[in-house]
Amino acid sequence: MTDIKSQTLSGLMKEMERLGEPKFRAKQIYSWMHGKLADSFEEMTDLPGKLREKLQQEYEWIRLEPVKVQRSVQDGTCKFLFRLPDGNVIESVLMKYHHGNSVCISSQAGCRMGCRFCASTLNGLERGLKASEMLEQVYQIQKWSKERVHNVVVMGTGEPLDNYDALLDFLQILTGEGGLHISQRNVTVSTCGLVPQMRKLADEKLQITLALSLHASSQEKRRSMMPIANKYELSEVLDACRYYFNQTGRRITFEYSLAAGVNDSEKDAEELAVLVKSLNCHVNLIPVNPVKERDFVQPNHRAVVNFKNKLEKSGINVTIRREMGRDIDGACGQLRKSYMDTERVR
Ligand code: SAH
Fold first, then answer.
1. CB of 159 closer than 6 A to ligand 1?
2. What are phi and psi of 277, to 5 degrees?
């Protein structure tokens, strides 16, 4: 059965044609699903009863089931565990900032990129998520919080560019008219650096922000932290970033997770500054979240601030990521993993 919530508006129009229905039905159905966030076909009261029945028979209705919600007492950040129709579980996060509500979504169940500091990749990849399953994370959280979602970051479990086609449909439906219509400028997609897909995304000329997980200032060090660096040279990745900026005019964000004794020295900061200086960019420092299966350790606060100051002196735009939800399995993939581990024990 076709998954109706993953259909873009033009896809849905083709579907209506196939069913012998007038085209305007596509717009109606689309707006029920993505604008009004309907829970079922029954709610679509301006459709003839017969059509609703037909839709019920023809299409799969994807809905995520909340399994668990954890709320941080420190900062109100909420972490959600959702069950997918096939039984897989994924996690999403709601962060409340003064500039609005931000939702961090997963793009895959598991991940196959193998970054050494990351919990999401420990059990490998299950599968990529459908567009509908990415959308549902945003929809469920908006309904649960009864507040509008302003920003969406694709920074949860998974490598979004390893699930390219579904990601693109997701972005189109999330930011297009008739849906939540979130501004593309309020959407960020984070990648470990899949060069061909970064270039392809640049050619789509969207206004979304591309975040590149850099984490090291030399090819050798990056390779020791991120297996993907065996496939693409640092210089190729940075060229793709430059291409993204040239095609879209959007400033690149570099993510740099700081691990004590690994990539946090003065020399690292100097090399990093040289590397990114010629790019129109912003560096986001993330003190590494300790994951119990990994042995990366957070630098102390002073070392993080020193690193930041060093970059700033070289004229680099830099922020330290505010750590949200430390008390609720904050790091990527940890809630999902601890849930799956306990399920397995039972
Ligand atoms: N696959 C995408 C999105 C994943 S996670 C990517 O690689 O960008 C979002 C960010 O969190 C990435 O920069 C990732 O490298 C980083 N990250 C993962 N585990 C972390 C940890 N334990 N501590 C700090 N940052 C981490």
1. yes
2. -55, -40
CA distance 30 to 58: 16
Q: Which atom, in ligand 1's list, is nearest to the CA of 287?
A: 24
Take residue 146 and report the two structure tokens written for it: 């009864």
Nearest CA to ligand 1 atom 22: 289
* Distances, alpha carbon 142 to alpha carbons 5, 249, 327, in Å: 17, 30, 23
Q: Are 337 and 81 in contact (CB under 8 A)?
A: no
Regarding the beta carbon of 286 and ligand 1, being less than 6 Å apart is answered yes
C-alpha to C-alpha distances, 185 to 83, 167, 305, 336, nearest whole angstrom: 29, 16, 28, 29
| pLDDT (tens digit per residue) in 272-322 | 999 999 999 999 999 999 888 888 999 999 999 999 999 999 999 999 987
The residue among 236, 235, 150 whose CA lies nearest residue 196 is 236
- Rounded CA-CA distance 179/36 in Å is 8
State how far the Cα of 144 lies from the Cα of 69, in Å rounded to an integer. 10
pLDDT tens, residue by residue, 6-26: 999 999 999 999 999 999 999
